[in-house]
Amino acid sequence: MSKFQQLTGEDDRLLTPGEVASIFRVDPKTVTRWAAAGRLDSIRTPGGHRRFRESQIVALFDFEAGI
Predict the structure, then answer these.
(1) Of 9, 22, 27, 35, which is the most exposed, with the fewest CB atoms less than 10 Å away?
(2) For the chain, which residues make up each domain, given as ranges?
(3) pLDDT tens figures, 47-58
(4) d(C-alpha 3, C-alpha 61), whole Å
(5) 15-65 topology per CATH
């Protein structure tokens, strides 16, 4: 469990733009653009990197796939 998860009590895994991109089969830059446009919620690390909650990504993927 990461320090962030310990502090916030969140048990959700945080994904990198590359991991999200592989789920949707797009370029990681596309994921970053989606986040900047508000299509995806993201969390910023102290270093300024984006991370995405796995549960939200899976829910969006299931919705997009019609599951």
Answers:
(1) 9
(2) 15-65
(3) 999 999 999 999
(4) 27
(5) Multidrug-efflux Transporter Regulator; Chain: A; Domain 2 (1.10.1660)
